[in-house]
Amino acid sequence: MTPVMLRGAVLLVSLLVTSVLGAGVAAASTSGANPAASAPSAAAAGIPCSAAARACVKLSTNQAWLLSNGKVVRGPVRVSHGRSGFRTPQGTFRVSFKSRSHISSIYDVAMPYAVFFNGGIAFHQGDVRSRSHGCIRLGSSAARTFFATLDRGDVVQVVR
Q1: Peptide linkage before 76 cis (omega within 30 of 0)
Q2: Shared domain check, 84 and 102
Q3: CA-based end-to-end distance of the chain
């Protein structure tokens, strides 16, 4: 079951339970279904992004997190980002598309598990020990998790 399907199933069950038994029971029955429920809040964990962010990147420390409703669900994970002349842009963006086996049309290099959020800028699997042409490189496990978790329209924040 995909993360989107799981979220939809949890929401549907919550709505059904609420309509039959009342809101208090629904809240109790779904609290265990959210893996972020027991995770620290982003603010408590010192993460510099807003609660609206689904992914957060801190360039100065080469770290990234996945968030759900303001709580950490994965991270920090080590990343690398744009080198001189190819700086990774800071700001708030939205995921535009994903490509599991993307090949860069500009640099002719593989970008596995690419999640694009600012034009040609994406999270993708790559060497986190060297700088990129602006993308956020992730290790293999993290790249797969970011790809599986992030959906089109999700908010990505990149801060210094």
Answers
A1: yes
A2: yes
A3: 35
Predicted pLDDT at 37? 54
Give yes or no: residues 52 and 97 share one domain. yes
Domain count, the chain: 2
CATH number at residue 103: 2.40.440.10
What pLDDT is stored for residue 131 in this prediction?
96
With 0-12 / 13-18 / 19 or more C-beta atoms within 10 angstroms meaning exposed / middle / buried, residue 1 is: exposed
CB atoms < 10 A from the CB of 120, how many? Answer: 13
Cα 63 → chain centroid: 12
Q: Is the dihedral of CA 91, 102, 105, 82 positive or negative?
A: positive
Q: Residue ranges of the chain with pLDDT lower than 50?
A: 1-33
Residues 56 and 93 in one domain: yes
User: Which stretch of DSSP H or E encloses residue 55?
Assistant: strand 55-58
Q: Distance between CA atoms of 152 and 138, rounded to whole angstroms? A: 19
